[in-house]
Amino acid sequence: MMHQSSIAKELSSSHGDRLIRVLAANTKGNDFHASTFLESEILSVDDMGQDRSALVLRSGGVIPVALSYDDLEQKIYSPNIRSDSSVLDLRDVTGEVAKPKAPANANQAPAPGDKLPDGTIYAGISPDTGKAMYATPADAPLTMTFSEAQAYTAKLDAHGHKDWRVPTEAELNVLFNNRAAIGGFNVTGSDPAGWYWSASSDVGWNAWIKRFSDGYQLNDGKVYRSALRCVR
Predict the structure, then answer these.
(1) Is there a smaller number of Cβ atoms within 10 Å at the N or the C end of the chain?
(2) Enclosing domain of residue 146
(3) pLDDT for the residue 100
């Protein structure tokens, strides 16, 4: 990004001063009006996130624009684009269309398979805790024994969280039922990659595993290897 002093120098040295056309918010902020001003009135271009940016004017006004920061910066400061026309019309990307986007499902409960901003996947409600359960977007890289799976989740620091664990038998059933929406599971039925660990032991040497091709489950030795999808 160019420093403001460099921007001002470039604008002041340009031959002529383009006119910028926008739809700016009225004083009460509930409507928009067409406005035209000289390009030299622009102090800076600011990144607003959500593929939105803003023109900051020397007067203190801020005009949101429905363009990414890079796109708007290029339109304002690129010499090639600057020489194309004496007028830069931004009316179609300002005004109502430049309002921040509402987050997807902002007023709705998440559905299994919805991806959260941190990259985790909403998997459903845990039958054990009655609370929302989230899964990593992919299986652990390798198949592993039961004790290796427990150790792996205990050390996992991913997507800004450290409270990952092996799903219980009931939670593994939720993952299986929502496997298509959540995605990334091995559903070939192959052994061992198509079988998934639960944290639920049947007896001391065995724990429940489930085959994600058809939902068949059995009590398998903890020394054998299976796949793992971490939950929290």
Answers:
(1) N
(2) 121-221
(3) 74
β 87-89/62-65 pair status: unpaired
pLDDT value at residue 96: 87
pTM for the predicted model, two decimal places = 0.56
With 0-12 / 13-18 / 19 or more C-beta atoms within 10 angstroms meaning exposed / middle / buried, residue 209 is buried
Judged by DSSP in three states, 160 sits in coil
Structural domain contains residue 131: yes
217/126 same-domain check: yes
Question: What are phi and psi for residue 63, nearest 5 degrees?
Answer: -115, 105
Count of other CB atoms within 10 angstroms of residue 207: 24
DSSP state of 225: -
Give me the pLDDT at residue 7, please: 44
| Residue at 115 is within a domain | no
In contact, 201 and 225? CB cutoff 8 Å: no
Domains in the chain: how many in total?
2
Domain membership flag for residue 188:
yes
CA 3 to chain centre: 30
Contact (Cβ atoms closer than 8 angstroms) between residue 75 and residue 88? yes
What are 172-184's pLDDT values in tens digits? 999 999 999 999 9
Residues 31 and 94 in one domain: yes
Picking from 230, 5, 49, the residue whose alpha carbon sits closest to that of residue 140 is 230
Q: What pLDDT, on the 0 to 100 scale, is given for residue 83?
A: 53
What's the confidence (pLDDT) of residue 40? 92
Whether residue 210 is contained in a domain is answered as: yes
